[in-house]
Amino acid sequence: MRTVRLAWAEIARHHRPLHRIALVFLLIVPTLYGALYLWSNWDPYGKLDQIPVAVVNEDQPVEVDGRTVDAGEMVVQNLKDDPIFDWVFTDAADAATGLENGDYYLTITVPEDFSARLASGADATPQRAEVEMRRNDANGYVIGVMAETVQATLHEQINSAATEAYFESVYGNLATLRDGIAQADDGAAQLRDGLATADTGAAALASGLVDAQDGASQLADGATQVADGATQVADGTQQIADVVNPIADDLVPAIPAVADGAADLTTAVADLTGTVSTGADSLTARVDAGNQALADLLAAHPELAGDPAYEALASAVGRVDTRVTEVSTTLDAIHTDAQSLQSDAQALQSSVPDLQNTVRDAQSQVNELNDGAHEVATGAGEVRDGAAELATKLTEAKDGAAELSSGVTTAHTGATDLASGLDQLVAAVPALDPDQREANAAILGDPTDVTLTVDNPAEVYGRGLAPFFFSIALWVFGIVVFLVLRPTSGRALVSRSPSWRVALAGWLPILGVGLAGSWLLLAVADVALGLDPVHAWASVGLISLAVAVFTLIAHLCRSALGLVGSAVLLVLLMLQLAASAGIYPAQTLPPALLALHPYLPMTYLIEGLRVTFTGGSPQTLQRAVLVLVGVGVAAFVGTWAVAARRRTWTMADVHPPLED
């Protein structure tokens, strides 16, 4: 308990208002330090849309199979639809100047061949398009880390536009493919319809040819009947000859005596001759009619000229005609002889009955001959009917053949269109070897490359954040230096020296120690850690200026406020840690800290050290130097005024409220 009471006594002795304020300050220091720093860095990635990034679209649209492919504009539209950063769409000159001066933290450039490379996806050799990103580490190293974090998202957005552009180009070929497929489909339909027509025509032709074959068979049967009839005629005439000759031999000696019989014989022979060769119903007339029917049939159907059946029939009828002619000639001769024997008719009186019987037999034979002629006529009619039927069937066969020809023509046209369409398909689909397929698949699967170029690269995290930590170190020196050194000595205050000299004399020891310490810091960072400043002497000069300015500010606070000044310096440190944008871009800060950002000395020291350590815009360095010089001069003038005031002593000077 005694320990607790002793501890509480130390607290209780601070009973004055200012002492209690000091205790409260100590109480809230952790909260101020931690809360402010957390507040400033609470969600920097959630404020990326406030970081200005320049977008330059230099892409030139291309025409692919009548379609315009403008991939660059698609990328721009995709970026507008998803504002990851604060996109500023501008030209290349403004983007480059803004990146150098810190107006833009990144630039994204779509090159002029972007669409052309993506459109190559419709060919056998697609090319991967590139989008160029550029950052400047002089504007802050962590923005590069942030950009790399969202680079995959950017890449996805750009690929989305690239894929859309790729399909714009490929759809041109797809249209060609579709036209080829449509043409092939139409050709296939024509081929199908043509083959169906050809099938119908072939069936009709086959049926017609079968009927034609039946007609030809009937024609052959008729021709056979004609031949048989002609044979019967031939046999009958032969029988007439066989009968007439013996009768003539028997009657020759008795001709003078058989005038009457001869006259009768002459009359009978005349009748027989008329039956055979004269009159509309004679055998000769019937044979001639048969010949005329065959001639008419041939005239009507010239294609029968080479038909074997027709030729056989015509030959048979010709033979019948020849034989009938021979019979007629023979009968004429007999008739002549019978007339010549008329004078001898008397001698034939005794032979008349036998002669009559013989004539009757001859008449019977002639009747048989007449029947054969009728059979010849009937056979010729059947030949005519068969030929007519054959002509009809052949006409049907001809029509079927025409249909078949038309169908085959249609099928040929359809097959031609089908072949043409398939040729287009083959031409539109490139032939690729396995290596080409693998390479093309890789390109089309990831059609773009997002390249990142870093100006004034910090290369490593420590080098990128060195300006921030150097600034902290130099400011902290301004706080801790007064643990050892006094702001101003009492002897100087009571001396007769001018106030400015008193202020300068109090500050110079602090400056000397600070310069030595800052140079040591720079040497260790360079030699041991590999800081390797791009502008080494400029780094030495700027750090020396920063030591001078920061110690002048610290000297002013301690000279004016004493121990409270150290608390003020600590608060200023907290504010600068939170609002100087030493790690994340200023645009990610809360509004209150963002408003405070341009009024903090550490802000300009960090910007200047980024230029001297890794490179950057000379204008940025010049601005930082001018601001720091201005702040340093103002701080010294303030210290001068404080020194002048302190040369008049008060009770507070003798007994300060808070003692070291």
UniProtKB/TrEMBL annotation:
Record keywords: Membrane, Transmembrane, Transmembrane helix
Mode of membrane association: Multi-pass membrane protein
GO function term, MF aspect, one: ABC-type transporter activity
Transmembrane segments: 21-39, 465-485, 506-528, 534-554, 561-584, 624-643
Highest taxon, organism lineage: Bacteria
Positions of the ABC-2 type transporter transmembrane domain: 23-163, 419-640
Localization per record: Membrane
Cellular component, GO annotation: membrane
UniProt-recorded name of the protein: YhgE/Pip domain-containing protein
Protein source organism: Miniimonas arenae
